[in-house]
Design brief:
single chain, 379 residues, D-Maltodextrin-Binding Protein, domain 2, 6-stranded mixed beta sheet, 16 helices, globular
Length: 379
């Protein structure tokens, strides 16, 4: 174990881990008061959208005092993590990966998970894929019939028209009566070759362009015919940020950046320290359907498993909701959290998880086709 000790002399870490065979659940006993200075460092690579949560002083205190753990969290895009060679993961002493989707998890399990006898994947949080818009853009799309408003929340009800009639035909914001921003209509994102929020956008776009039906994930044969158009949508953005949080921060700084693909929790995390109120000029658009990003932890070692179990702690789950905008990772966890995000952000229009129209990401083969298209130009 990667154990660090206090200066008072050798201590024993009382960290009893009981593996419930057949369930994958680990129970961790709290260290005794005499061993409070002993902690185990857990090295984890994860998406940038989790960095605030792992840096939270209260979360760190709970992990240290209740579970005897100290996270050493390093930001890395979801697809960059899961494509890291096994030898590099071992050499760097990585205990867990924390990508943002089952798609990224499937890529890792196709090539790397068998090398780790203690491997366990567990969904911990969820966050729907959304598009962020400034107020004028949202109202312009509302007038055009592409967006609808229900119970103060905004939904993209005609993503196909947005892609095929506006973006791929090179329409400008002026064509839908929007003065700011100027220029062509695009949907910005993080780099889909590295980051899951960008990839989830590409997966939604692929379903529409390859099948005509956003609820029908593309097959490999369908995907091959539509890849050039999906790449054209992505390349229209120009330079892309490598992570979800840096893309979101850039969009906020620009102030009039049009549309940005991201996670629902990013804006909620940003406003949590600002009274929980979303600025009037920012609107969250929920695609219909959306992809529910699961944010699973992929434990590679016993330390990684211990960390996974700790992040399911009800108090940590509550902090993740009220301060960082994450939805619980399972229906059972969501039920235990009461009203969840609606309770944490009473002034924000937040559809319930059950109310969202959702679709599945494509299978692993199709995701790999997308990666090769974006990474190597093999479209």
């Amino acid at each position: 174990m990667k154990q660090q000790r206090g200066i008072a002399g050798p201590v024993l870490v009382v960290l009893v881990v009981l593996v419930l065979l057949g369930t994958g659940i680990w129970l961790i006993a709290r260290p005794s008061a005499g061993d409070a200075e002993a902690v185990t460092t857990v090295d984890c690579l994860g998406g940038s959208e989790k960095s605030g949560l792992l840096g939270d002083a209260e979360v760190q205190r709970i992990l240290r005092e209740r579970f005897g753990l100290r996270p050493n969290f390093r930001e890395r895009g979801s697809y960059a993590q899961v494509q890291t060679p096994v030898e590099r993961l071992r050499a760097d002493g990585v205990d867990c990966l924390w990508p943002s989707s089952f798609s990224a998890q499937a890529i890792f399990e196709s090539g790397g998970s068998d090398a780790f006898p203690d491997y366990l994947a567990e969904p911990v949080f969820q966050s729907p894929q959304v598009l962020y818009a400034n107020r004028e853009v949202a109202e312009g799309l509302l007038r055009s019939g592409i967006v609808a408003r229900r119970a103060d929340a905004y939904f993209i009800v005609d993503m196909k028209r947005l892609l095929e009639e506006l973006i791929l035909r090179g329409r400008s914001w002026a064509d839908v009566g929007v003065a700011v921003p100027a220029g062509p209509i695009i949907v910005a994102s993080s780099d889909p070759a590295k980051s899951n929020s960008g990839m989830a956008l590409a997966q939604l776009e692929l379903a529409i362009l390859a099948t005509g039906d956003p609820y029908r994930p593309a097959t490999a044969e369908q995907a091959k015919t539509a890849l050039p158009r999906v790449r054209a949508l992505i390349e229209a953005q120009g330079l892309m940020r490598p992570g979800s949080d840096s893309a979101f921060d850039q969009w906020l700084i620009q102030g009039t950046g049009g549309l940005l693909a991201g996670y629902e929790n990013q804006l909620l995390q940003w406003v949590a320290g600002r009274g929980g109120r979303v600025p009037e000029q920012i609107v969250t658009l929920y695609p219909e359907p959306t992809i529910l990003n699961e944010h699973p932890i992929l434990a590679l070692t016993p330390e990684g498993r211990a960390f996974t179990a700790a992040m399911l702690d009800p108090e940590i789950q509550a902090i993740a909701a009220r301060s960082y905008g994450f939805r619980p990772g399972s229906p059972e966890l969501e039920q235990s959290q009461g009203q969840g995000l609606a309770q944490a952000f009473p002034g924000v229009a937040l559809p319930g998880t059950a109310e969202l129209k959702k679709t599945q990401a494509p299978n692993q083969e199709v995701t790999e086709l997308l990666l090769r298209c974006f990474e190597r130009g093999q479209c």
